[in-house]
Structures are given as structure tokens and as C-alpha cells.
Amino acid sequence: MIESVGASLVYEDHGREVFACRDVSLSVRPGEFLGILGPSGSGKSSLLYLLSGLKTPSFGAVLYDERDLASMSDEERSRLRRREFGFVFQQPYLLGYLTALENAFVGEPTSARRDEALDLLDRLGLGAKAHRQPHELSGGERQRVCVARALLGEPRVIFADEPTASLDHTNGLQVVGMLNAMRGDGALVMVTHDPSMLERADRVVNLVDGQLVRHGE
Amino acid sequence: MLIAWIVALMNSIPYSVKTVYSYSQYSLGVTPRGDPLMTPRLIETFRKECPVPIERLVVCRGSTTVVKSIVGDWPFVVFGLSPVDLQYFLKKHFTSSIDGRVPRPGSAEAIVSEPVARNLNLKMGDVLLGPDKTDAYSPVPVKIVGIAQSPEWMILTDLEYHKENHFPPIDVFLVFARNREEQSKLDHWAVDRFKGEHTRLFAYHELEKDTNQMFATLYQILNVVILTLVAVIALMMGMLMNIYQSQRLVEFGLLQAIGYTRRQLLVRSLKETSIVIATGWVLGVVVAHLMLRVAYKVLMEPKAWGLDTLDPTAFAYTLIVPSSILLVGFFTVFHRFRKFDPVSVVERRLV
């Protein structure tokens, strides 16, 4: 479904080339839970951005259904992210002027999606708080709203970039458990530095200094 | 709002000129430039050569007094008319009724129209002209005996009184056409016909032309002031919008990351900007109009001064401000989005 072929991401730091990812070849299979494990600064998030089309590789390629993401226009990649992918970021980013429910379906504000979002919030234990503003929710609750936003529309792939970074361990496990349980047939690609969050992963890859060092089933 | 105010108040000056001397739209004033022998000849020429029918030719006398304007005293003519002509003059200038009466033949009496009475704060029995009034001199006191209910500004006295008390002893005359269209033709013809001759004409279109020329320079200065103001406001708004957009980068970054296209965000941002600016403009215009109405009621109306609270020029001038802000806004937003990277937001580099 998604395949990175020798993908590298290079950025410049004071005139020096720095490899955030180096020659990464990796595939994401349909419906799997893929964990990307690595210490801070190892290039996990960069790899996630490459796989999700938020960044284009400096070298190599990332293919989605055998189509090179770099060959797509900005609009096509946006459409792909909107319709086929779901995202949970490190911080529970929510729009302050919208309610939890409105935030959950902000990606596609239609009445059908609203009902779906309400159902998702309910299943995530936030049914009673659906009409609250983000500042009225705890950190864990805000991240659960982000989970609902990512799950909306049953995406084919959910990308989670350290979704537990801003939560305590219990809340973190709860969020990951919910993501895994409610993703249906969609694949889950999760980046973390905490191995305990990947206990239920089908596969875990390790990243050190931007390079894959080990695959584990 | 501020610009509408400045322009409307400035426009009130030429507007007042045209209002105060509006009576001259209905007749052409002719004087023989100090030579009393010219008057009969001029009348003869008018009767023979005028291209439009003359409704009435009124031989009269004229002297000057002053009326008050927001920029000081303006000269105003005091007509001396025969009783019959005086009745015609009042009727021709839309007098609906008279409080009091018209001046008696030979008496030092005057009738003024309601705007003049308001402007000079005159009541029945007050002295309009007198020996101790420098700008409104008459060797004998002239009292107000009537106030004509008419929108036009008029000060009328009796012809006999005028002949006896005012210098120079020269007959002048007013030529009336049947309607304003014919009056305009008559005026234009006369200005052409008597160019270079020993006569002076008072035509409304000449007054309009002179007023517009007089204010042309003032308007040029106004344009520079307004353009400077607009530039400063637009720059300030542009900077404010820049700050506002910066504060919303997290929102835009998040939305772009989850699949909104740059174009969608750009349109969204510009739409919001346009709504804010349009709402601000409409509110500004409404407030400006209301404040102008208050200014008119409190400052202008008691003195019968002219102020157009719906002055289209004033409101047209205000359009420059939102247009410029919108332009600066569009440029700011477009520039912001051109190189915007959502990853910088979700990676917390911009938070």
C-alpha cells in the first residue's frame, strides 16, 4: 500500500547537510499496526512525514498504491491526506473556537460526518463532552478528540506521531488502545520512543540516526 | 468614517455656495457696469435677440449685505423691486406662504426668506439694514415685515425705498425664462453674446464654474492628505493582519496537515478578511452618516448652512480605504501561504 524506496530526507543546518532519514526502504501493509521506534532525534517523525506525503524525499521515493507521492500535485497530496489518511500528532491540536464535536469533523464538515463524529466521540467516552470547548477538556480528552478526528471517514492509514507524548503513561496506553481498537481495517503507523506503547503492534521497526537498524515482527 | 467626515464637511462649502445663491438659477442678472445709459440698450438687445422666450424682464435695483457661512461672511444681494415684480419674484422662487406681509411702497421695509431669517437670526420687526451696520448699510433702518416660506435665499425691499436710499442710481435687470432648461440656454447665450461688452452678467452656471475652480486646488490638497492617510491606515492594517495571520499559523498548519489545500485555506482566509473589512466599512459609513446628521442638526441647520449627509463623493472617497486594506491583506495572506510548511507547525517548530 505504502512503500518507501531508499527514501532520504536531507535538510541544511548552517550550510551543512543533515540526513533526517537515510536510505529508508519500508512498506506499510494494509490493515497492519506498524510501530516505528527510536530515540529522540532519530528521524522517526521525519519518516512519518515522508510516508504520509507531508514531506517529499530528497532522494528515493515514497509510493502509495504504486504511485510516487512526489509526482502528485500539492492538491492531490492534500486530497489524499484528507480522504485516505488520518493523523494524530504529538500535541492535541484543536481549534479553540470550535467545540470538541466540531473539531472532530473539521476535516470534512458535512452533516453525515457530524453524526459519525458524534458516534466516535461517544465510543471514545466523550459523548457528554462533545459540545465543550477545547479549554474545558483535559489533555487526555483533547487527544481523544484528535483520535476521533483521525478515525473519521475510516481512513486507510492512520499516522500517529508520538500521540502519547503529552500524556501520562495510563492515558497514553488508553489512547493507543482506542486507536488500535477502533481503526477497523485501516493500517496504523505509530511513531514512539516508548516500546510499551507498541505492545500490540504487528511489526516494529527501529530507527537510529535516520536509518532502519532492525525489523521485528 | 473620518474620511467621509472630512470630505462631507469640505463639500459643504461649495454646497453652501450653490444653496445660498440658488435663486440665481431662475434668472439672469444684468448690470451695465456703472453706466445707466446702457441699461435700455441692453434690455432692447435681450428683447430682440434672445433665443428663448422671455417670461419676464424685471428692472430693479440692487445693493449688498452679508450672510453668514461656516467660512465667514458672504456677500448677498438686496433687491429693490416694484410691488408687482416683488410678488412675481416671490412666486417664482417657490414661496408657499408669507408670515407678515410684503414691504409697502416707499417704506424702509424688507421681506426675507426663511433660510435667511434663520441664518441671520432675524425675527419680524428686527432691523435688517441700518446706518450703524457696516456690512448691511442703509441711511435709514430697514425692518423685517415679512418672512417668506421658501427654500431659496432672498432679501427683498421696495424699489422706491431703494432708489431713494442706495447708491449708485443705476437700474439693473433680471431676465426670467419660463423654466430652468430655457433659463440655462438663455444664460449661456447671454454670456457668449455680451462677452467683451460694457455689461456684467450673473449666471448660475458661471457661479458653479467659479466655485468648482476655486475648490479644485483645495480638493487636490485633500487628495494628498487622504492618500497619505490611506497609505498609513493600509500599512497599519497590513501589519495587524500579518500579526493576526501569524497567530493563526497553528490552525492553518493543522488544517493543511489533515488535508486542506493551500488554495482552500487561502480562500478561507481571504473570505474572512473581506468580511471583516466589508463589515467595518459598512459600519464606518453608517456611523459617519449618523454623525453627519447630528452635525447637520446641531451645527448647520440652525444657520441654514448646507451639508449633504448622503454626499456620494464623501462616501466614494471612503472606498479607497477598504480597497487598499484588502489589497495589503491579500498580499500579506498570499505571501504567508506561499512558503508555508504545515510540518513546521505539527512538529511544534512554530508553536
Question: Would you write up a description of this structure?
Answer:
The complex is a heterodimer of chains A (217) and B (351). Chain A is globular, with a radius of gyration of 17 Å. The longest helix of chain A is centred in the C-terminal third of the chain and has 14 residues, at 169-182. Chain A is an alpha/beta fold and 217 residues long. In chain A, the strands form 2 sheets. A 6-stranded mixed β-sheet of chain A has the order 6-7-8-3-9-10. Chain A has a 4-stranded antiparallel β-sheet with strand order 2-1-4-5. In chain A, helix 5 packs parallel to helix 6 (169-182). Chain A has 6 helices and 10 strands; from the N terminus they run βββαββαβαααβαβββ. In chain A, a hairpin with a 2-residue loop joins strand 1 and strand 2 (16-28). Chain A has one domain (2-205): P-loop containing nucleotide triphosphate hydrolases (Rossmann fold), CATH 3.40.50. Chain B has 351 residues and is an alpha+beta fold. In chain B, 54% of the residues lie in helices and 18% in strands. Chain B contains 12 helices and 10 strands. Chain B has helices at residues 2-20, 38-49, 83-92, 114-119, 159-165, 180-193, 204-247, 249-257, 262-300, 312-318, 320-338, 342-346; strands at residues 28-31, 54-69, 72-81, 97-100, 109-113, 127-129, 142-149, 155-158, 172-177, 200-202. In chain B, strands 1, 2, 3, 4, 5, 6, 7, 8, 9 and 10 form a 10-stranded mixed β-sheet that branches. In chain B, strand 2 (54-69) and strand 3 form a beta hairpin. In chain B, helix 1 packs antiparallel against helix 10 (312-318) and helix 9 packs antiparallel against helix 11. The radius of gyration of chain B is 30 Å and the shape is elongated.
